[in-house]
């Protein structure tokens, strides 16, 4: 059976999360055929370091489950990532509140990233 479509995109997204989290090349040192066979048989899995955010690792692991039917959809992934982002925002706010003055943070501190709207859309999207 050949797996294509969204479940394969979800698996690839999990690999991308792993790569962004670790800064490493997935399956480094292996030939393409080795990766293909290992992933196809379930004998090759990316290991998440202990220092990676546990919730983020859980999302990535869920995306890379061996059985395609057990992988989440992108709606579920987006929901999980939104919850993770909200918790990180709370932690950042607490650090800013506790150490804002000494770190030069606080109201007006730091530049905004242009082109990103509060809801995550790109700037100018949907505007006439």
UniProtKB/TrEMBL annotation:
Annotated GO MF terms: ATP binding; protein serine/threonine kinase activity
Keywords: Kinase, Signal, Transferase
One Pfam family it belongs to: PK_Tyr_Ser-Thr
PROSITE patterns, per the entry: PROTEIN_KINASE_DOM
Keyword Transferase: yes
Endpoints of the signal sequence: 1-23
Positions of the Protein kinase domain: 1-84
Family matches, as InterPro entries: Kinase-like_dom_sf, Prot_kinase_dom, Ser-Thr/Tyr_kinase_cat_dom, Ser/Thr_Kinases-Pseudokinases
Region annotation Disordered: where it falls in the sequence: 105-128
Taxonomic superkingdom: Eukaryota
PANTHER family: PROTEIN KINASE DOMAIN-CONTAINING PROTEIN, SERINE/THREONINE-PROTEIN KINASE TNNI3K-RELATED
Protein name: Putative serine/threonine-protein kinase
Native source organism of the sequence: Tetrabaena socialis
């Amino acid at each position: 059976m050949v797996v294509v479509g969204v479940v394969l995109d979800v698996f690839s997204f999990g690999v991308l999360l792993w790569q962004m989290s670790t800064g490493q090349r997935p399956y480094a040192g292996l030939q393409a055929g080795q990766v293909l066979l290992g992933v196809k048989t379930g004998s090759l899995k990316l290991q998440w370091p202990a220092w990676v955010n546990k919730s983020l690792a859980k999302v990535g692991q869920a995306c890379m489950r061996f059985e395609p039917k057990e992988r989440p959809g992108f709606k579920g992934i987006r929901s999980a990532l939104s919850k993770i982002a909200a918790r990180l925002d709370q932690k950042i706010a607490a650090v800013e509140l506790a150490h804002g003055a000494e770190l030069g943070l606080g109201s007006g501190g730091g530049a905004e990233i242009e082109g990103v709207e509060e809801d995550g859309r790109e700037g100018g999207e949907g505007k006439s």
